[in-house]
Amino acid sequence: MSDVEAILPAQTAWLLLSAFSLLWIALGAYWGRRNTSFEDHALAGRNIGLALGTATAAATWITSNTTMLAPQFALQLGIWGMLAYATASFGLLLFAPMARRIRTLMPHGYTSGDFFRLRYGRLAWAIFLVFTLFYSLTWLVSMAMAGGILLKALSGIPYAWGMSVILAVCVIYTMRGGLAAVIGTDFIQSLVIIAGIVVVGFAVLSHVPIERIHANLASERPALLSVLFPAAIIAIFNNLLFGLGEVFHNNVWWSRAFAFRDGVAGKAFALGGLVWFPIPIAAGFIALASGALNVAVPAADMVGPLVIADVLGHTGAIAIFIIVFCSLASSIDSLLAATSDLVTEDIYRRILRPAAAPRNLKKVAQYVTLLLGVLTWAICLPRIGTLATVLFFAGPLVGAMIWPIVTGLYWRRANAAGAVGGMLLGAGVGLACYFAIGWYVATLAATAVSMVWVLACARFSNSRFDWAKLKETA
Amino acid sequence: MIFSATFLGAIVYVALAWCALAALGLSAVLLRDLVNGDVW
Questions:
Q1: Residues of chain A neighbouring B23 (CB-CB closer than 8 A)
Q2: What is this model's ipTM?
Q3: Closest CB from A82, A197, A214 relative to B5
Q4: Which residue, among A149, A152, A67, A14, has the nearest Cα to A331 in the 3D structure?
Q5: pLDDT at position A128, please?
Q6: CA–CA separation, A430 vs A422, rounded Å?
Q7: Which CA distances in Å does A172 have to A56, A58, A164, A301, A329?
Q8: Is the per-residue pLDDT at B19 higher than 90?
Q9: Predicted local confidence at residue A346, as pLDDT
Q10: How much is the pTM?
Q11: I need a labelling partner for A396 at 20 to 30 A (CA). Which of A118, A318, A439, B32 fits?
């Protein structure tokens, strides 16, 4: 992100940061007081209701990318860019029936790793763990780094301080309260983000009508209004597949499927997708108004905050600071919780200490959260630059896992050879395309190759999986 | 061929109204869950 003048005084920013940090930590401690076992800590007692379930599905998917990158997408790819971003909600919508099935097939499951181990055996499980841990750590680091960069850009708070504070706050309340704290804070964060976007959106429209925005774009940047904008149309497919792969495989979403009360998982993910769908459009169109408002945009990734500060002044700057802080926290806490559960369940419990007691496992999960936080902080501190490239690099890994998961959940003939080959071949071809052609085809190629291999292996297989094997109790 | 101002206005206003309804809907469902003791 390029250096632009801060839109909020550092003193006000520190005040807001302190207030929200104290609130999240206090709520985390309060909601975590009931946790006695690993199941309480990791899955909030498997009893999350519809309101919290819907809010956490939407809030976790609202990252700083949604609130900051959606305007950038609109500025660079126009109307199609906003619509392309909105297709990421399909990941949540399509995961809804899968979440219902996961809850039914695996009533005692803890992680997405449990599914791979029980469904496809240890080799597929090991490959899955390597892929998903690489992706989750990359996402976590990119979020923490984005936190430091955004807080500095918005308020001048030094990068190291902003990044450290937001990471420390999320680590503390996630350690203390586990998934209950994550989901509880997600509810508040989702309301704050959505309400903030609505207020800011109508404020922008009250300053500049749609007709003027359209007229300015038509004369200055007509490509942004073009019905046929090839780069933007390709971005739709890439975004769609990336979203599907991310939601289908990552333990962030599986842990929620396990944590929701019986009968809630499907509805909560479907409603979460519907809640999320309009957000990239509502947040993104603000960028299209920059020309009509004569707002100078020295850095495309700061277009949202610059327009909002221009229209709403000090109040707008406070609003965008709170929205960004909530977006970051709602994703970082979920990643910390889900990744620590994955390490605790799949590595510590299943490989190192099969006889570990539930109370002991809860402590291990808390320490793993702390270690993840420290590791993320150490990687982020030197500010090595943008991690967008690394995230796109992970796209083929994510795309290659879509078909082993979908067929494994619904088709008894899906087998280990298909899953292992699909993940390795898909990721290999996808990465080759990434380097030979570009990021925008990598996920698509990985998904296609993986699909062909997985379906062919299942078609010619004589094996029939016994679903009862997924009902492992300990 | 470009998208019209009417189309741009429609998707923006619908998105903003959708967001507002989503926030209200979430609050209403939370209230219902609180009354029924179904929050968690």
A1: 191, 194-195, 198
A2: 0.94
A3: A214
A4: A67
A5: 97
A6: 11
A7: 19, 23, 12, 30, 12
A8: yes
A9: 96
A10: 0.90
A11: A118
